[in-house]
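so my prof wants the structure for this chain in the tokens format not the other one, which i didnt know existed until like an hour ago. anyway here's the sequence
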Amino acid sequence: MATVPNINSLSRKTSNVSDISDFQDNISEKTLLKLGGGGNNVNATTAKVLESGKGAPSSWESCYYCPRENFKAVNEFVKHLRERHCTREGGSFVCRYGFNGVCPSLPLDGVSDRDYDAHVAKYHVNQQTREMPPEWSVFSAAQNLPAVLNDPSRGKQSNLFTKKWGVDFVERNHVPATPYLPEVTHNDFEKYLAKIGKRYKRHERLSSQQAMALEDASNKGTMPSSPSHDVNLNSIPDIFLKENLNLQHAPTFGQVFPDILQSPSGEERRRTGRLLQEQLSHYLDIVEVKIAQQVSQKSAAFFHAMTSQDAIMTEMQEAAKKVKALRTSLRALNETVVVDTFRVLRYAQRRQNFEEVLDKLRLMATVHKTQPMLQLLLGTQDYVAALDLIGTTQEILTQELIGVHCFKHLPMQLNEMEKLIDKMLTTEFERYATTDLNRPLCDVLKETDSVCAEEDKLVCIVMGLLRMKNFSFVDAYKDEALVTIKAIIKQLVIEFIASSDAELCLTGAGEEAQSLTIGEWIALLAKVKVALLTVLQRIHAVTNIMRQTTDAAAGGCCKARSEQSTGVKATQETAVNLIDSEAFLTASDQSQVHEKLDELLTAVCHYCHERCANLVSQQSLEKSVATAEEISQLSSLVDDFAQGCESICGVAIVPLKVAVKVQASRFANRFHTERKQKLAILLDTERWRQVDIPNEFQKIIDRICDNKEFCGAGSAANITTALTNGHAQANPVLLVESKPYTLVGSALLLVQMLCEYCRCAQRLPIVAGYLARNVVDLLRTFNSRSCQLVIGAGALRVAGLKTITSTNLALVSRALQLVLWLLPKIKTHFQAFDSTAVAGFDIIERDYNGHIKEIENKIYGIVSDRVAMQLDSWDARPPIPSQCFRIISRHLVKLHEAIAPILPEQQIHAIYSIVHKNFKDKLRERLLDLNIINNGGPQHGVVTSELTFYMETLRTLKALPAADLDDSIRESIWNF
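here's what i got, hopefully its the right format
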């Protein structure tokens, strides 16, 4: 045991040697057990070891997670845990002394104060063994299965689920050399090897010499023998080789001192303690021997290090002198240069800080004056400036004055102020709209000062609403305008009814209950038109100001936009004085407001038309019969009102026009019904005789021929009176473009009715389409009824005629020809008003031409039948001319006498040409029957004489063209 101090001193000398330091750490606890020996009581030895502090540190002496915190007492450790590793949630304490701030032995919801102290004492202060929190290393890495399966560079793997898990699960790829690291070769180590080679050779030589010396000594038997030189550390229990040997831990104490406390008597216990002490001394001797062997093997390196230590100490002294001189120079430099310079910089920084603080104070003073300034701006109706001030103040509070406690309630106050301004603007706009729209109306649209009252106030209100992005004011103005229009119409109706003597009642909509006359309705509509146009002009002026204000708020040119949207050139005198402000509306917001304003004008104009349409609706006028003059006045009023609305909103409004067109169509239907019934009565009573033509009717035809106009004609009553009474100023025929027309009375009245239709269409263009279709219907009625009466012999029953003569047929044909002459002019007249309503005129023209053809067939059919009848009984024998040919000549003369004064010569030639052709055909048949040939015989001479008599009759009548009246028939008759 005497060698122990020497070994310990040797250990202290060799503490810096790296080869034995690790080994010495492993056996420190065992050495301490031996050094603490010398007594007979093992418990006293154990206590001394625990008090010496040379064993493992207690759990409360240091903190796992605060490396620099060391504690001398338990109270300091408990205080540290409560301050640093504990959180308080409500009334509970949550321990955070653990990995990732989670204590593994305390509930997450926490415990009370007393339970927390008990928890710290049990699990943290008296903890016997501690494990350091795991540190991440390369061995902690593992394969990530989702990353392997979703590797985009590998695509779909077919054999993924057939592979065995392990190091070969992921295929190994060759990793190419990085271009950023140079290639290391053997030549790079030549300089190092040349430097270390000499030292390495010297080390090898010394090691070989030492090994040879030890071997010689062992061979000569000079090696000191020791009973323990061949001992091994394996004979020492592993418990003494642990780094964290802690005898306070009961199992560890039991392994070190087995059965120490179970001895029945004191003598036995002392004997066991002595044995244990001897055993521990034996373990210490083994360790000391191993230390001595280790030191003897490294003695050369140890003494070399001790020799180098003197040189190192000399160099350290020189370095200390240089450091002292450098510190002296730095201190002088600091006192002469650095301190003053940094003081100047510090003063400049302090001045800058003072200036920033002063700016903040001034900014705070300005923000403090925000509310009085807001009151002042609202008092002057500068709403945009007030809202800008609120926005700027809120921005300053959130960016530059954040955290200032004296302004913590100001943002909320500013928000409430902004809401108050929004409500104030809405209320002011509604009040302004009501006041402006309900101003007294002027009698005409000439308001001297301005159509819009208080323009500056309106601009301020609208600009404020736009700044708030509150675009609902357009809808509010539209609702107010509709209410005002409804109230104005109702008030005008009430005033009109009050001025009337009749007792009338009002409906819920404000219109009178269908008891006024047409004239009263028109007068009422005229007043309503003037009033509504006045209101619409005011609305248009207000919307123009809103539009210009919106353009100004968007930063655009209000004048150009106004001209583009409304089509009205804004002059410098009527321009609105807009507020100078920055543009705060976006292009989308500007277009949205413009769309709302356009919809407002369209909706208001449409509503005006709908309310006025109720005044002229079918229910309102169903008890009245309107004249053409009244319909014309009504149409004129509606056109003026529609043009005024269209000039305001730029869109054609149709409800009122539709209502007027309904009334006009009712008038047109009644107009047509009256004339159609009158024409039917005239046709039923017509005797189909020639009548004299009154001068009034001749003037109508002359005017149509000259000007192609149907105006200025006499009334139907005058013409009817002239026809029935035989007025002195009358002509037997009607001259149409110097051509005589012999007509019946119904034809004259038909032409008169057609002229009335044309004049009515010219006067009321709104019903021109209806009248055009009615004209077609009237002409179709005349054509069909005249055909039934004359060709169908209906006049024999209706009018009491004895027979239908060729004269009757000719008069009907001439009447139809007059209508055909007039039809293109009527078509052109109606086509100027409605091009789509003249489609039926072509059909009527074809029907009339067909009717005329039927009449011609009827005329020559009658004569041809009688001629054929006579030729059937004719025989070629004297006397000449025979009785048959005399009768044929008489029929031809009677036909000519009947149709010559009525039909034109060309039509007469056409009729006689057909009769002449039929005569020749029938005569050839008779000659074949009689077997008479062209042989110059007696019968041939009789035929020639008969034909000469026949042709002489035609020449006398001039019934055929001159070219057809020669004697060629005497030769051509024999061409069978």
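also thought this was worth mentioning. The first strand starts at residue 86 and ends at 89.
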